[in-house]
Protein 1
Amino acid sequence: MAQEQEEKLFLPRFITTDENFAPGHRACIGCGEALAVRHVCKALGNNVIIVNATGCIEIFSSLLPLTSWRVPWIHTLFENVGAVVSGIESAYKARIRKGKIEDRGVVFVGFAGDGGTSDIGLQALSGAMERGHNFLYCCFDNEAYMNTGIQRSSSTPYGAWTTTAPVGKKSIVGQMTWKKNMPEIAVAHRIPYVATASPSFPFDLMDKVKRGMEIEGPAYLHIFSVCPTGWRCPPEITVEIGRLVVETGIFPLYEVINGEYHLSVDFPELKPVREYLKKQGRFRHLTEKDIERIQARVEEEYQRLKEKVGGK
Amino acid sequence: MTKRRIVGLEGSFAIAEAVRMANVDVISAYPITPQTHIVERLAEMIADGELDAEFICVESEHSAMSACVGASAAGARVFTCSASQGLELMHEVLYIPSSMRLPIVAVAANRALSAPLSVWCDHSDVMAIRDIGWIQIFAENNQQAFDLTVCAYRIAEDKEVLFPAMVHMDGFYLSHVTEGVMLPDEEEVAQFIPDYEYPFVLDPDNPVSMGCYGPPFIYPEAKKAQEVDFEKTKPKIQEVWNEFGDTFGRSYSPVEEYQMEDASIALLTMGSSGETAMLAADEMRAEGREVGLVRLRLWRPFPFKEFREAVKDVELLVVLDRALSFGMGGPVCSEVKSALYEKRKELNIVGFIGGLGGRDIPIDGFKYMVNRAVERVKAAEWGEEMGPEMIGVRE
Amino acid sequence: MGKEKIGWKELEIGCVVTEPGSAASYKTGEWRSERPVRDNTKCIKCGICYIYCPDACIREDEEGYFEADLYYCKGCGVCAHECPRGVITMVEEEEEAKEEKEK
């Protein structure tokens, strides 16, 4: 069944050949985030304005005097994407109303990493969602501060090694806290659209981008972005990892449309988390007990999600 | 049709009137006291249909300026205001529009910084942001607050300028005090600051990338271009102020002189204390003292030429700082000294620090500063042991 | 563009970059240590290699086969790993590159 689902999602030939995120960008070899950005840009089309937080994407796409962006793009700071998007959307609203420009349905999009979203940028994002600006926010979650050297964020999963949650003689787990559930924080704002996606499921991802664009009001998309450099895994398995994280139930793909939960891909049986963890050097130190702990947590969370899907 | 009229307005309301007449598109602000009256009044104007603008009631000062950056990059005329801690929270963002060349206009109601918490006036917040690359202009009264805000749009949006501008008015002394303000005709203001088109607006028809990453091979070139262009704004600023004078009858200069014709001693002030200092100069003149007053209207870019010209015949310059650079003295005094270095070695400069956290400086305070400065020069009371004196402080 | 030679007067105001997608002039292919080599006899033209390329360097040719543009290909091997038919093998760059050092 899982295999069937997958095949249904793999329809590369129907996707536009436009690359609004141009090659020549300097992302690491096998970067899952660059892949995700590429997919998002394919779905977004040309009639957009992108606001980018400081982070990997901004660095690898905009080294002066060159740019990878074929759509209007602005970067200012790390923690203010929500506010800058708000300003742009408001500017368009006011200028259209005052007859200074025509309404051509421009879509306003925010890009940030997990640190720029769930840590330092959370306040600005929360403000923008609460005020109800019409925008799509894409969090590219590579589960740590990768651009600056793999420091832990609140989005780093339990047990992962990072340079600021190292594995030492005394502290043997790495990250000691559970990953912050950012999509649920977005849901708590009662915005019309929240979804999770992985570029290993590109068609699903692009559908979600389009839905987020079409819906009036704030839309939040949380995109799993594999980082071979920071996760200590070979670059060629980027897509495989992004698939396994879904198949193990660690990062389920779902949508919350006007408060109603929908699972995008369901599995009668989840693969054991071990299959996902063992492929990455950042989890190498984990003991059987640690892995069991993670397994139990994943099952519990997955169950909770399924109850929400059924409950509505 | 409205005509020019004099209205009693507190400084905050005068600013709001200027912003309304500038017909801004987006206002983004966070309500920290004491400038809230500005945005409260603007929110009222929008609610009453007197101003057609989007009001973004953001969740912090950091976001207030960030939203202005976004809106300005999207081609909108924008406004925000802040002070004190709010201005400090905004600090990081302030560098963005000056480097990315977005003509945002903001007003700061100058106030002290914590701790202890003070909501009162001084220039600590201003001095903390003097290196941000904004055009910074000081108003002395509510009329000036209005005029200079109108002018700020015209200056900032000029194609040869394209830098953000901040109008500084002293918190409480101006922001909360009602004075008579001559309001011009709205049509006249509209003509004075016509609609503008930002050259690189964020627009899908003409995609540009803004705020790209600058490694060492290009960063210094970026800063050089910014500095050269910033220096070039000075003649434009004067030009706009002259034109404002021709149209509305009140003109301004980067450095304004009072009773300076034959003055051997000059006081130097910024902001509202200039008006008290004028009274002090008058009284001292009546006593036969050759005292004049120099007021710095333009703080950034610093008006070196005009300033040197203003003090060229003075023997003693008495500088009032309403801020303290710990371990250094008064920031204005040290900048003034550096502006005169090598040009006027024979000039004595004595700095005082006063008016911190809303402490009033009465007329006698200025007289004291002049007398004390003369004493200190006579006694050659400086050198390494002699820092700036803080006036009006209890033992 | 000789980027190291750009003088301050040549920068656009605020360092705005006005040429969309200009990074496409930047050759990332030099990073590569392995290159994808295809056996198109096995290819079913599904396009999976195309959709999973993080560097957008795989293009469809007139016959419907997919080919990596080595100007950009960083040699990550995702295409080889994901290809359902084993069309693509990653080959050490030195061996291949000896004879055809492109551009």
Protein 2
Amino acid sequence: MSTERTVRFSLNGRAVKAHVASHESLVQVLRDRFDLFGSRESCGQGLCGCCTVIVDGKPVSGCLYLASFLDGTSVQTIEGLAPADDRLDPVQEAFIEAGAFQCGFCTPGFILMTKHLLAENRAPSDDDIRHYLTGNLCRCSAYPEIVAAVKLAATKQRGG
Amino acid sequence: MRPFDLVEPATLEEAFHLLEGDDPAVRPIGGGTALMLMMKEQVFRPVRLVSLRHLAPQFGAISIDADHRMIRFGATTSFSELEHSAVVARHLPVVVRTMRTLANVRVRNVATLGGNLAHADPHLDLPPVWIALGAQIVIENPAGPRIVPAEDIFEGYYETNLRHDDIIREIRVPLNASQRASYVKITTRSAHDWPALGIAVRLEMKDGLAHHPRIVLSAATNKPTRLVRTEALAHGQPITPASLRELGEAAVSEADIASDSRGSADYKKHLLRVHLGRALHALALEE
């Protein structure tokens, strides 16, 4: 039986290992073993995006991803996005400048998804943004500001 | 969720061995996005999950035959690999268009084509598209592989006739340069909700007449269902307001539609009448 295993992976650029049970999810392990609280389980169904984590360069729902599958992967969370302690990522700056949140609970997920939207599409339209972020819910309903933040981030990343 | 035995075989033989017996709590797992939901709700309590992800080198490729007559999709291919494949965009644009409103980016990055088929939720978007495109499913089994039309694996609501030791290996889609196809997802609450109904249509147009149409209804029925009588009626017909009305009525009388939280049966029948006609009309106008 292998109901538990040790997984070794890269977490925000650092080699780590964790002993995980077969039924534990990625978001549980990040919070319980690594004290990384930026990804949150909210809907628990992959619909809301609060648990967004980047695995091998792709955003996934941490609540639907078995931690056992982490072995050998590279994981990035919102905590690993800023390039330095005193500097934010342009997407983080854009969300602050556009006031694209109220309570902030959903913000890490929106920011990580935006990072990947802009990697695929340097100048997304409103429609592109709304489709890409359809799996992220903001219960404060900051959507107009979020769309503005994504466009601002796109401009910043293009060097504008 | 409760602990279970999680194993990751590297070969098909090993996978068969791990699936042996007839315990319904021993199942294969692909990306796991759908199974996770069922496990969280304790609808499914696995004793052992046999992960297919280490079979990906053999099972995870998209390839096109040299004569361009067939595309093969490995069962562990993720939805996003499908979505971003240049070969798929060129030869099966309907599949790429379907991705845009299928779940969301994160689910598409993880969910697999084989798992999607085996899940057999009638609301899923891709099964009706596969059926409309005439896809064949390659299924591996210790007794030997078999190839079946996509529509033949579905039995009912979350129900397939896949056997306990079956592993879906590949989805094969025949190509036809003159075919046109579309999938219409009709949601009645928010745009990205589960559909109230899905309609997948493929046909060829010859001299202004529809040829060899395939019409598949999903979500409103307990499994994705070909409307074969409506298909037969549409074959050789011009696409006119009168024929579309007739085909809409034929589809409504042929389909076994039930009421649910996304609409009454009467409402869904009306949606079918209207949207089937629009879908056929749009395909007829395509260049």
